[in-house]
Amino acid sequence: MQKTIAEKLSILSAAAKYDVSCSSSGSRRATPQGGMGNGASMGICHSFTEDGRCISLLKILFSNACRYDCAYCVNRRSNDVPRATFEVDEVVELTLGFYERNYIEGLFLSSGVIRDPDSTMELLVRVAWKLRHVYRFGGYIHLKAIPGASPEWLQRAGEVADRLSVNIEVPSETSLKLLAPDKNYASVYTPMNYIAERKLEYGAGKPSRYTPKFVPAGQTTQMIVGASGESDLQILRLASGFYSGQHLKRVYYSGYIPVNEDKRLPVVTTKPPLLREHRLYQADWLMRFYEFRYDEIVDESTPHLDERFDPKLGWALRHPEFFPVDLNTADYSLILRIPGIGVRSARLIVSGRRFSRVGLDELKKMGVALKRAKYFIYHRELPIGLRTLYPEMLTMRLLAETKTPLQQLSLFDTNLERPAVPALS
Amino acid sequence: MTLLYDDSFDGFLTAVFEAFRLHLPVSRIVSESRYEVSLFDEEPHRIVTDSSSASRVWTGIVQRLDNDRVAMLYGSFLSELTGIEDHLWRYLARLFREGGAFAANPLAPEVLPLLKAAEAVKREQHRFLGFVRFQKTEEGLLFAEIEPQYDVLLLLVGHFRHRYPQKRWAIFDSKRGKGVLCENGEVCEIQIPDFHKGYQGDDFCDLWKQYYNSVTIAERKNLRLMCRELPRKYWAHLPERAGRCPVCCPK
């Protein structure tokens, strides 16, 4: 039975949604002569779904008829789910129709492994090639590099796509072998290394504007968090290696959402580890924008991120020797390490202090949040007690600040832990 | 002394020009549409917009400031906030008096309010690069209606002109009753009241709504986050959110 394009879209977009990558940034592509679409290097979000994630690209699978049987995946062979496969022209038509209405920034095409990695990769490349060369489409194209695909197809994919990604999925090889018997680390690392090397070659020397583009927005990967027993240290060490070794643009962390009943995995009723995922992203940001090394964020003695605090605050509490920091004299990189002060605030402080001393008033005017920063900066207007607290005391104080949500007291509530009116002493 | 100008940026620059030429003791510069007569005001002076004097002021600004700061000045003007012209006047007065060195200090009293206004405008402009939704009419015109908080319409034109060089497209700001039409890369301003009421939709619009619903992960539902990123004030012109229950958004 032939499915309509609407049915296919609904099946294959629902099947693709667990891939969290959505960004459309990093590629500056001019609109081709006689065509439509360009790459906006800052990335543009077009909508937001009810789970709060942005929609930037038309994210679909080419096919969910996968022959692999990975335990964590909703599209695995042994699952009884509706299957569908697009035609090349259907994907092209959808992409162009959505794009000209400004619904999307481009296409993110992935796929289940249909026969073998190469023939699947070929289908993805044919869609992208048709968009680029027949319809002269200049919008963003993100293709999934199928693990195990051959260099020839990766090369062709790299010539038409803005971004490629190979998903590592599970943060250690032993778990990967257990959960995804058809995959191994070599099948993931080989394409990743190939793309990284080719990209270096294309960028070598002095590339002119006539040098053909090869994966201009770089490559990314994704790993599932919480499906197997890896610690945050293992995850962040792996991510840090990707950033320095393969020059990845992004590593995505996907809190495992139980979709399959499988004894190798957490039970289906497990809540997705959203807080842990959030902390990992915060740690990732620290590595990419705040000049932190992974071993400063977690180490052998504390292999897991503290879920109560963001990792920057966690680092500051473990390193009282750096604080308090004097905002008027400290280096930019040290100001960046103060909890509560971000890149925007740090830049404002550094440019503002060239003209006048930065006091509390100035910080307030700039919109710098002092809620956490006040314990870590030196300023004569701040009570001295704030910056002489021991980390242990500070921890208690910060916890108390975050843990008491404001609530309306009830007249008839007899279960108050503390008396509503403090006793006279 | 209060100066009134005709809502346009040229009008404002003309007011600045006249203030300098006649050495006027300016206390306020207000656009005519936003001017409210108050009890203690003396009679305001209306400025007749003159594009040559406006361009002289503009040239003066461009000579003294780098591109980012020029863009910041224009952006803050588009915020249409009450009193933003007075901040701009103080900024320009200082600029022409002592040159552009003070502009690098984000904490200067002349700079900070403009910086904040320009940031807000910039944020909304960037949002609308994504939130403009075109619908295709029978004649093949791509038409979009927007109601931005700030007057960002003209800031969007360049982006879409580069993106769709072959298309005929129009964006209409129904809040301010003005729009732009672009044909073969040529842009012109249009006034088309009631051109389209609401979103008509087509096949792709239905597919888009379906896509929007099917990519949501139910286990991760987070309406608060969604409403922060996609504020309710924009929903009316987004087909995927239009007509959704407005109270489902927790504050």
Number of strands of chain A: 10
The number of distinct helices of chain B, counting runs of at least 4 residues, comes to 8
Question: What form of chain B results from the Cα inertia axes?
Answer: elongated
What's the level 1 CATH class of the largest domain in chain A? Answer: Alpha Beta
Structural class of chain B: alpha/beta
Query: What low-confidence regions of chain B span 5 or more consecutive residues with pLDDT below 50?
Result: none
- Which regions of chain A have little confidence, pLDDT < 50, spanning 5+ residues? 413-425
Number of domains of chain A: 2
State the strand order across the main sheet of chain A: 3-4-5-6-7-8
Radius of gyration of chain B: 21 Å
- The residue fraction in helices of chain A comes out at 25-40%
For the secondary structure, the number of strands of chain B is 8
> Radius of gyration of chain A, Cα only, in angstroms?
25 Å
CATH homology-level superfamily of the largest domain in chain A: Aldolase class I
Distance between the termini of chain A: 81 Å
**Category from helices, strands and their pairing of chain A:** alpha/beta
